[in-house]
């Protein structure tokens, strides 16, 4: 179990972030955030592509139970997106959109979802393909495009 004192003494948390993290999160959230911090630390010590895979694997394991944490984990990687392999970029986008969907984000545009469908119709697992199509349907539904949602 990750403890606040262990993270503080190790110097891995900057004081403003540390104080905000532990004052606003219950114990369970602190544990999840500690795990995310450990993955991010591992990310910086690995080669770039393996580090991205580690973060994406962590996000994938948390997306169903802690989608808000996944958003906080993945959004900062937007500035690193161009350094990722194309398969990692698409997986990052799929996981981010999935987490946003689980947090009831309203999609006002379908361009990202169309890009995901185009990619995952040719690559990835059947589950990733289904998720991409589901997210496109959600975008159409949010946009009021009922007939496109059915197709």
Write structural notes for this entry.
With 151 residues, the protein is mostly helical. Helix content is 72%, strand content 0%. The chain contains 9 helices and no strands. The protein has helices at residues 4-10, 15-24, 27-45, 48-62, 67-74, 86-102, 111-120, 126-142, 146-150. Helix 5 runs antiparallel to helix 6 (86-102) and helix 6 packs across helix 8 (126-142). The longest helix has 19 residues, at 27-45.
Brief account:
The chain is mostly helical.
Mean pLDDT: 79
**How many helices does DSSP assign?**
9
Alpha-carbon Rg, integer? 17 Å
Mass-distribution shape: globular
The helix/strand series, from N terminus to C terminus, equals: HHHHHHHHH
Structural class: mainly alpha
Largest sheet: none
End-to-end Cα distance, whole Å, is 47 Å
